[in-house]
Amino acid sequence: MRCHRCRAPANVEIRRSRTAYCARCYPDWFRFQVQERIDHERMFRRDQRVLVAVSGGKDSLALWHTLVKLGYRADGMYIRLGIADYSRRSQQKSEAFAEKHGQVLHQVDLEGDYGFGVPDLLDTRSGKPCAACGTVKRYHFNKVAADLGYDVVATGHNLDDEAATLFGNVMHWNTDYLGRQGSVLPSTHAKLVRKVKPLYRLAERETAAYAIIERIDYILEECPMARGAKSLAYKDMLNALEEEQPGAKYRFLVGFLKEGRAAVRTGGFDQASDLRECTRCGQPTTGELCAYCRMADRGRAKAAARAARYGPRPAPAEDD
Ligand code: Q46
Ligand code: ZN
How far apart are CA 40 and CA 178, in angstroms? Predict the structure, then answer.
């Protein structure tokens, strides 16, 4: 195949649109797609400050790189989740990216600042901490953005992530979540910062191609807690479908957002009128104590019990 733009031999094929690009033209195509979504969905303006939720993986670093290249005022934020070697290596990748590109990276250290790590939040039924980890991330990204005056939080969710989430929500008929799934989550309270997903129409392999061509050094391994996650099974299934029907994931997600979402939209529970401030941390919540503060209490109790039994966690090694 030849590059759609310059006719040189192509390196990256976009099967859903039956086009391909060479390594020189591809990054421009990718950035154009992101810019087009930001503008079309009015995600943010050039005079606004963006906080990019950074994990050290390809999607979040590709997003940060793209926004910086497009000239946005985008700083990064990384949360040290305390997931052993995975956290240590992903932190290094995030810090190295910030340094190489001369960008600001804010950090929250869960164990150091809050007294627990994500492994202390295992769900007894699933044996996984992922639901709690999601709460931790949403809470801290929002809090730092609100405290430091950012206008918007941008996450690196791609087409594969969003299609898998949609599939999971359909499988379980989570109509509340279905009604709220989208690329822009508007602010409904002075302390809730707007959330956007500028990569949501770009496939995982397209983000990976961008990261590789732009020589972004990202963490290759998945979080060890992801093993056996339902979302991975959904992704495999959607990938198998995509092989047979190029564009299936895109049509599933974008079709839903255009046609299906309105039909399942529910009253929602993030309305400003339902929200008050957590009596401990001041963040918006529907109850007295927010979900994060309740969860953090459990995490700290677990961490204290663990330390009493086995002693504090050993300091990480200083290699690589
Ligand atoms: S980081 Fe957290 Fe993920 Fe790891 S513990 Fe689960 S949710 S898998 S994106
Ligand atoms: Zn709270």
Answer: 22
